[in-house]
Structure formats: structure tokens, C-alpha cells
Amino acid sequence: MRSPTPSVFIRGLGAYKPERRLTNEDLSRIVETSDEWIRSRSGICERRVAAPEETTADLGAQAAEVALRDAGVGREEIDLVIVATASAESTVPSTACLLQRKLGLRAGIPAFDISAACSGFLYLLQIANHMLRAGDYRNALVVASEKLSRIVDWQDRTTCVLFGDGAGAAVVSKCDVPHVGILGNVLGADGTKGDLLAVAPRQAPAPEPVEGLPVGTHRIVMNGKEVFKNAVRVMSQACREVLAKCGVGIEQVALIIPHQANMRIIDAIVDELGVERARVKVNLERYGNTSAASIPIALEEAYREGLVKEGDYVLLVAFGGGFTWAATLLKWFQPRTIS
Ligand code: UT7
């Protein structure tokens, strides 16, 4: 009989941010907005935009290469690849299958995408957690990749100032050390609020492209105020739930990494939870909201900066379209040096 697997943990991390920077000043030449409005309402100063030829799978592959190197895991050792994205160029083949081919991962391993908007990476962590514990898999490649610039409506100032492109990846592995890595997870959704943040078909005729920015067949539509209120309430609640489930107090958490959508949302959650700002990772000023990729990009940055150390409790929390939400508590386990 197989012995139960004690733990599933993040063994390596990678991120990729496309080179092109689009500043608030740049946006003020495209729509009627200003650096002052965007900064004060969202905290965002600039975001990245992928090159025309770069696909969602390309961004994910770049992040995955870094994560594989960081984990010290060979391509042949990956036995599951899962991807979260809301901006894939194709639904079939999935971005996970495209990545499998692009990275030269073993043929025959399972590969699939999930759609959970900004909560996608945390949904994937829970899927990997269960599949690794229950099945015959040892190492999963978990990737969140977004080329949101292709579904942003560059004529809609209420949304186009918020989003950016990027990808984050993790190698998630089993180990025999008890009680480390993914300690607990809370996932949720409320489909009755789906219309408040959606990717909808674009009405014809499509506008002319501006400043080399793509025009997709679909566009993001959002009721910002309603999303804002729900995001604060639901993310605060999800944090409390996952902490209670794991028997860990908020005062024991070394670092909180919230979804990077809006500085005012993060400030409100910080106030709700009563934690000091120094324990919260924020990088949205440089990347904007990269949907599913936002948490792994911020986690990778925190990790490279040495903000997460062996034994630390790290709390991840997300909220997005669907509505979907998730919170994950990690006990950082690092049987390696940072590459
Ligand atoms: O990833 C999923 C999660 N997504 C989010 O969490 C986003 C949640 N929502 C938000 O972050 C905020 O609601 C926004 C940043 C989108 C908007 O901030 P707000 O404080 O809720 O502003 P508002 O929508 O109430 O707009 C205030 C004013 C309006 O003008 P009036 O009606 O007061 O005359 C807007 O038309 O600001 C105007 N406005 C702008 N002005 C300059 C809206 N967008 C812009 C803009 N530049 N880009």
C-alpha cells in the first residue's frame, strides 16, 4: 500500500514580464485620462505589453523555463502541466498543450487549462496539491499566463488603465517532510455576479489599432465600483477562513501576497485584517493587474528579494471575474538555494 504523502510544496519559481513598458503618460495620449487619476485611484504607474508576435504560451514558457531552472528539475521529470489564463489565443489546443510542445515536456503527461480569472493561480495550486497527493505524479508545472493587452478595450478608459501582460510559474513537488508547503486552501465562486466583470465579444466594427496595441475579438467589461466592494469583502473573508482552517493566527503570517488589482483594495484588506503594511507585498505600480499571473509574479519577486524564508507562513489571496476567489496558506519550504 502507498504511504500517504506528507507535503506538496513550491520547489521553484519563475516570472516573465514583457519588455515594452506602457506608462500612464502613454495612456493619457490614447484615452482621456491622467497619470494623477490612475495613480490616485489605482496605484498603478506603468504596465507591460507583450510584443505582437508573443503569445500567451510564449509568455508562460519564458516563466516556466526560469521556474524549472530554479527548482533544479529537468523537463523529463515534469509529469503534469496546468495553466490558468483568461487570454489564451486558442482554447483548443489548450495553452498547457502548447507549452508541453514548446518546452519539450514528455509526451503523454496530462496537460490542461483552467478558467478562473484572477484566482487562477491559486485554483491551480489546489489542483496540483490534490493530484500530487492522490495520484502518480511527483512534479507539476503550474503556470499562469496572460496577454491581456489583446482583450483590453484601448478606447475604454475605465478599464484599459488597469491591466498588463505577464506570466508566473511554479514547479510544485511532493516531499516527505510533514506539514510544509501548501497547508490549506479556500476556493469559491459566485456565478450570479458574472456580468460585473466579463470578457465579452466586441461589437463590429473593430476600432483601428492605436500605438501598436492589439485589437482582439473580445474585450474586458467591468463595473469597477461593484467589483471593488466585493473584492475587499470576499478577500478579507477568504483570508480569515484559510487561517482558521489551518489553525494559524494572522499575527503569525510573515507575508501576505494579495492579487495586485488596486492599491486601495489592498489597503482596505490590510485595515480589515489589522496587519501592518510592511507585511504585504505590492508591485502593482510596475505591472498593473496581470490577472492570474499577478500572484505568482509578486511571489517570485518577494522570493528573489529574500522576503520569504524557510518556515515562514505566506498567505496568498485572490479575487476575480466569475466571481471567483481563493486563499492559500503556505509554510515556506526551501530545500535549495535561490538561483
Ligand atoms: O482583477 C479583478 C479585480 N478588478 C478590480 O479589482 C478592479 C476594481 N475596481 C477598481 O479598481 C476601481 O473601481 C476603478 C479603479 C476601476 C475605478 O475607481 P473608482 O474610484 O471606483 O472610480 P469610478 O469608477 O467611480 O469613477 C470616478 C470618475 C468617473 O467620472 P464621474 O462619473 O464621477 O464624472 C469616471 O468616469 O472617474 C472617471 N474615470 C476616469 N477619469 C480619468 C474613470 N476612469 C477614468 C480614467 N481617467 N481612466
Topology:
Elements: E1 7-16, E2 20-23, H1 24-28, H2 35-42, E3 46-49, H3 56-71, E4 80-84, H4 95-103, E5 111-114, H5 120-134, E6 139-146, H6 157-160, E7 166-175, E8 181-189, E9 197-201, E10 218-222, H7 224-246, E11 253-258, H8 263-273, H9 284-287, H10 294-304, E12 313-320, E13 324-331
Parallel strand pairs: 4-5, 4-6, 11-12
Antiparallel strand pairs: 1-7, 2-3, 6-7, 8-13, 9-10, 12-13
Helix pairs in contact: 3-4, 7-8
The structure holds oxa(dethia)-CoA.
Oxa(dethia)-CoA (UT7) binds at residues 33, 37-38, 41-42, 118, 157-158, 161, 197, 224-225, 227-228, 231, 261-262, 265, 289, 320.
What report would you give on this structure?
This protein has helices spanning 24-28, 35-42, 56-71, 95-103, 120-134, 157-160, 224-246, 263-273, 284-287, 294-304; strands at residues 7-16, 20-23, 46-49, 80-84, 111-114, 139-146, 166-175, 181-189, 197-201, 218-222, 253-258, 313-320, 324-331. The strands form four sheets. A five-stranded mixed beta sheet has the order 1-7-6-4-5, with helices on both faces. A four-stranded mixed beta sheet has the order 8-13-12-11, sandwiched between helices. A two-stranded antiparallel ribbon has the order 2-3. The protein has a single domain, classed as Thiolase/Chalcone synthase (Peroxisomal Thiolase, Chain A, domain 1), CATH 3.40.47.10. The chain is built from ten helices and 13 strands. Helix 3 crosses helix 4 and helix 7 runs parallel beside helix 8. With 339 residues, it is an alpha/beta fold. Helix content is 31%, strand content 25%. The two termini are 37 Å apart. Bound molecules: oxa(dethia)-CoA. The site of oxa(dethia)-CoA has 20 residues, from helix 2, helix 6 and helix 7.
